[in-house]
Amino acid sequence: MSAHKLMLLGEIGVGKSSLARRLVFDKFEFDYKPTIGVDVYRYIVRASPDRPEVSLIIWDTDGNFGDTIFKHIYMKEAAAALIIGDISRGGTLETMQKLGTGFVDMFPGRHVSYLLNKSDLISEAETAPLPPFLSKVGASFFRTSAKTGSLVEAAFVDAADAIQRRAI
Q1: % of the chain beyond a pLDDT of 70
Q2: Is there a contact between 15 and 117 (Cβ–Cβ < 8 Å)?
Q3: Mean pLDDT across the chain, nearest whole number?
Q4: Residue 43 maps to which CATH number?
Q5: DSSP bridge pairs for 48
Q6: Which of 16, 31, 118, 123 is most buried (most C-beta within 10 Å)?
Q7: Where are the beta strands (DSSP E) in the chain?
Q8: Contact 103, 70 (CB under 8 A)
Q9: Is residue 20 within 8 Å of 41, Cβ to Cβ?
């Protein structure tokens, strides 16, 4: 089984840790405890007809780094990144774009997906149009909710699939 490093990037409070904990432990905690530095999780993505079993080593970074994260040792050997924003806080979506651009510039050809997290806070009638950068051809995105678990596993499985395709 192959193991691949997956970065979680985004501003403070967008739900990076909540997404990781929902995926790994299938739990959501209402107590907010900010990540200091980085927390590392391991998640096994079961084999599919198109992909063998994959171990994701998930690096949950704190949001204080901003775009200086790309100069940090944490990024070494990153196979992919999930860029997370809080769908109810527009400013975090602008940061998503900057982080996504930075990741693509530093790691060309590696997978990046955008997670519009906290979708449970927005009703379908209120759903805002997607930020223009997500309309680009090939931009992979998910409207996730760490609270309900909606599309959390799908986003990580999509990343595992993309990582595996790149490795072939």
Answers
A1: 88
A2: yes
A3: 87
A4: 3.40.50.300
A5: 51
A6: 16
A7: 2-9, 38-45, 54-61, 78-86, 111-117, 140-143
A8: yes
A9: yes
Q: HSE-up of 49 (CA within 13 Å, CB side)?
A: 0
Integer angstrom CA distances of residue 109 from 7, 112, 167: 15, 9, 11
Closest to 7 (Cα-Cα) out of 62, 68, 85, 86: 62
Reported residue count of the chain is: 168
**Which tens digit of pLDDT belongs to each residue from 26-66?**
999 887 777 777 889 999 999 999 889 999 999 998 776 66
Q: How many domains does the chain have?
A: 1
SS3 92: helix
pTM value is: 0.90
Work out the average pLDDT over 155-167. 92
Structural domain that includes position 21: 2-167
